[in-house]
UniProtKB/TrEMBL annotation:
Signal peptide: none annotated. This is Baseplate J/gp47 family protein. It comes from the Bacteria. Residues 270-360 form the Baseplate J-like C-terminal domain. Residues 184-263 form the Baseplate J-like central domain. The lineage of its organism: Bacteria, Bacillati, Bacillota, Bacilli, Bacillales. Belongs to the Mu gp47/PBSX XkdT family.
Length: 361
């Protein structure tokens, strides 16, 4: 609103000078000029700030706290960072599985974890004390923060419920417009999608209504970081949405009369082979990792669109196009996906995972 030329410093100063009688000295360096110039600069900065303030008022241009406040007016609140839930095993000095006290703490790579629940002897659920995706990454031996009698080894293992970073501006904005425009109500598809996607550890969800007749709903989920969910996460979402012992009774988020089954996507491993023409003095070993990284990025992009685009199709041309972006690759031909030169179609509940990548000249 205020970013046109008439609100720039030079234009403001000239208008101020035009209001001064012409029989007075208005040249640069004169008393009048030097008195008006700082005021014109302040006014120009004021208009810049006012223009920026306009951007902070609208949801499509706001950011940070201003976007959070805008979306909250419509009941859409920024999702906070969540804590990763992991699995850990503990052994005593004789190498036998042993129990540790609930609440005992351990650390690995400067991240602390606290024991929250026993699964079985020597196997426990532990939760990161640091919120966010940082708690998803470490694996291996942990050290005890507090002494645990007779404990020999503590090993951090499977990721059960991924931790998530605080919702970004772009994701919040997208969710805001989706929730405003989709009009969720009383157990319709939009209602299920929004409520399940908002649960900890869930990145995407696909709803299949009346999948086994009237009143039945299947919700297929993908975990944070766009990977298949663990069985623990599937069970957790099932408990929240429609607990199995009380299916259809409206005990969870699902309306009375709706029986909801929560499932997760599964990996389809894709082995890839291609014949390359390389630049002079370039070897397969020099481009192998870059090509694998490019394929990983393609598969991740597909997984991010799974909610709206499933069933996914892995296209040979897309893989070859990405291989050609790698420095040192002149040409690529004969690409095969799991032994076939055709595009590979996945089922609705499958997402791609890179297998072996075999390159030849």
């Amino acid at each position: 609103m205020y970013d046109t030329e008439e609100y720039e410093y030079e234009a403001i100063l000239q208008r101020m000078l035009d209001d001064v009688p012409d029989d007075m000295d208005k040249r640069p360096g004169s008393v009048i000029y030097d008195a008006l110039a700082p005021a014109a600069a302040e006014m120009a900065q004021m208009y810049i700030n006012m223009s920026a303030g306009d951007d902070m008022y609208y949801a499509d241009t706001a950011s940070g706290e201003y976007l959070s406040r805008r979306t909250a007016e419509f009941g859409v609140n920024r999702e906070p960072a969540t804590f990763a839930v992991r699995q850990a095993t503990f052994q005593d000095n004789a190498g036998n599985a042993m129990d540790v006290p609930i609440g005992s703490r351990f650390f690995i790579e400067d991240i602390n974890y606290v024991v929250t629940e026993k699964i079985t002897t020597g196997l426990f659920k532990i939760r990161s004390e640091t919120a966010g995706a940082i708690g998803n990454a470490p694996f291996g031996s942990m050290l005890a923060v507090d002494y645990v009698n007779n404990l020999s080894t503590a090993v951090l293992g499977e990721l059960l419920v991924p931790g998530e970073d605080e919702e970004s501006d772009e994701l919040l904005r997208e969710r805001y417009f989706t929730e405003i425009n989709e009009q969720p109500f009383g157990g319709n598809v939009a209602d299920y999608r929004q409520k399940i996607r908002a649960l900890d550890g869930v990145a995407s969800v696909k709803i299949t209504p009346v999948w086994q007749g009237g009143g039945t709903v299947k919700a297929t989920i993908m975990a944070t970081n766009y990977i298949p969910p663990s069985t623990a996460l599937v069970a957790q979402v099932q408990e929240i949405v429609d607990p199995i012992p009380f299916a259809g009774q409206g005990i969870g988020l699902a309306p009375i009369g709706h029986t909801v089954t929560i499932t997760g996507v599964s990996w389809l491993t894709i082995n890839i082979s291609s014949t390359l023409t390389l630049a002079p003095e370039t070897t397969i070993g020099q481009v192998q990792q870059d090509i694998e990284d490019a394929i990983d990025a393609y598969f991740l992009a597909l997984r991010q669109t799974w909610e709206t685009d499933a069933p996914l199709i892995i296209r040979v041309a897309q893989i070859e196009a990405r291989i050609l972006t790698v420095s040192g690759v002149v040409d690529v031909m004969g690409t095969q996906l799991n032994g076939s030169t055709e595009n590979l179609s996945l089922t609705v509940d499958q997402v791609p995972q890179k297998g072996t990548v075999t390159l030849s000249e």
